[in-house]
Amino acid sequence: MSFDVKNKTALVTGANRGIGRAIVEEALRRGAKKVYAAVRKLESAESLVSEFGDRVVPVQFDLEDPSTIQAAAKTASDVDLVVNNAGVLKTSGPIDDDSLDSIQFEMNVNVYGLIRTAKAFAPVLAANGGGALVQLNSVVSVKTFANVATYSASKAASYSITQALRDTLAEQGTQVVSVHPGPIATDMADHAGFTEGAAPPSSVANAIFDALTEDRFHAWPDPMAQQIGGAYQSFAQSVVEANMQEESPA
User: Fold this and answer.
1) 11 and 59 in contact (C-beta within 8 Å)?
2) 8 A C-beta contact, residue 15 and residue 39
3) Residue pLDDT, tens place only, 75-115
4) More exposed terminus of the chain, fewer Cβ within 10 Å: N or C?
5) Highest taxon of the source (predicted)?
6) Which long-range contacts (CB under 8 A, 24 or more apart) does 159-168 make?
7) Is residue 246 over pLDDT 70?
8) Domains: count for the chain
């Protein structure tokens, strides 16, 4: 299956800046009729509404607050595409003083938040014909960097859940894409010290919609990601994307 955003309705979490804003802009450029800008503070999406008018609809959304996710699923009952871009990052090594606090925070947002979002929106997507779900993971989901070890662990876990969602949601005709950016020029990357050679957020947005139209599970947007993705490709095709479900005993 493949997905074309033209004349469709999308929801993008963390839509107010960086990669999220670029995804909103690219969805509209490619012909989306409406995009829900899912943000923690509604006023943070005002500039998007000013630029694009009623094609952008702000909706409150906090990955730590299940009630906002459930409310957003009711508001965005016409959605065809959900892009879970929002996430958090702590610069914690595995034995730093704050490592346990960091990983608890990151797991709650980056992993539990993904599960909350998928549970809330899977029935909506099914009711609207299947559609697509996109999860922003990271190159650190397959290669840990020590100074962001807890973040890497959370993204490895979210990648694992994304793989499961691919298999589970296929039954209802929902396409799933796992996106693995390397350094991207955002506030988060700047905080983590990943600014050298950082690619623009638009590279992630383009990679997402190209993967959707080309029916690819993995998207590796930038030069570092493409290098890692190239090395990972054989395993991904032979194991991750292969149908390895055991047949039931005769």
Assistant:
1) yes
2) yes
3) 999 999 999 999 999 999 999 999 999 999 999 999 999 99
4) C
5) Bacteria
6) 159/135, 161/111, 161/114, 161/115, 161/118, 161/135, 162/114, 162/135, 162/137, 163/240, 165/118, 165/133, 165/135, 166/217, 167/245
7) no
8) 1
